[in-house]
Write a structure and sequence with these properties.
This protein is mainly α. The chain has one domain. Helices cover 54% and strands 4% of the residues. The strands form two sheets. The protein has a two-stranded antiparallel ribbon with strand order 1-2. A hairpin with a 5-residue loop joins strand 1 and strand 2. The longest helix is centred in the last third of the chain and has 17 residues. Belongs to the bacterial sugar transferase family.
Length: 226
């Protein structure tokens, strides 16, 4: 193997994931946190003024690398205790059934606040996940981080995805990823998992850079957001 081939092999697949991806996450996460700091503080103030509740969403843990659970940081875009109310409040029973039928996404969700509608459309609610990246729980680019009940129920609905789920959980979830820049919430679970598994198979510095460069356009356009 030539010197150039060796260098390229280090920027692809598992070698890239093991030796370089974490360094890129730490440097990139820190830089982005500084760049987005004005938006970060402006959004926090807007959330406080708009509705009652904490700045960050109070949601259950997500499933990360190797099935390890972690607390994901997101700006609150819904009413207080929205996640719990959806599953326990009789007023939301019909909405919860629709939520499960629609791959755990709702196009018209009455729990979303006025500020929440805007920050969700432009993915501003995701900015605090840079803290998860710096903590080593997430990556800048990777598969979606799922709720435990979401992952369990969706595999029952799409049993053919079980093999792909194992591959997806072999790496850290990302703030952005292949499915996020390819339709976001318009993509159903089976196709989403297939995209994420494809990302793991093709993982490289070049693929990560392409996804990162496509992400701002998706954020600005609000394409596929709910």
């Amino acid at each position: 193997m030539s010197y150039m081939q060796k260098k390229l092999s280090l920027l692809n697949g598992r070698k890239y994931y093991k030796f370089f991806k974490r360094a890129i996450d730490v440097i990139g996460g820190a830089v982005l946190l500084v760049i987005f700091s004005p938006i970060y503080f402006t959004t926090a103030i807007a959330i406080v003024l708009d509705s009652k509740g904490p700045i960050f969403a109070d949601v259950p843990e997500r499933i990360g690398e190797q099935g390890k659970k972690f607390k994901m940081y997101k700006f609150r875009s819904m009413i207080e205790n929205a996640h719990h109310l959806l599953r326990t409040d009789p007023r939301f029973l019909k909405l919860y059934h629709e939520y499960k039928r629609s791959s755990y996404k709702l196009k018209k969700d009455p729990r979303v606040t006025n500020v929440g509608r805007f920050i969700r459309k432009h993915s501003i609610d995701e900015i605090p996940q840079l803290l998860n990246v710096l903590k080593g729980e997430m990556s800048l680019v990777g598969p979606r981080a799922y709720y435990p009940d979401e992952l369990e129920n969706q595999q029952k609905n799409f049993p053919q995805t079980r093999r792909l789920v194992s591959k997806v959980l072999s790496v850290k979830p990302g703030i952005t990823g292949l499915w996020q820049v390819s339709g976001r919430s318009e993509v159903n679970f089976d196709k989403r998992i297939a995209m994420d598994a494809s990302y793991v198979n093709q993982m490289s510095l070049w693929l990560d850079l392409r996804i990162i460069l496509r992400t701002p356009l998706v954020m600005l356009s609000g394409q596929g957001a709910v």
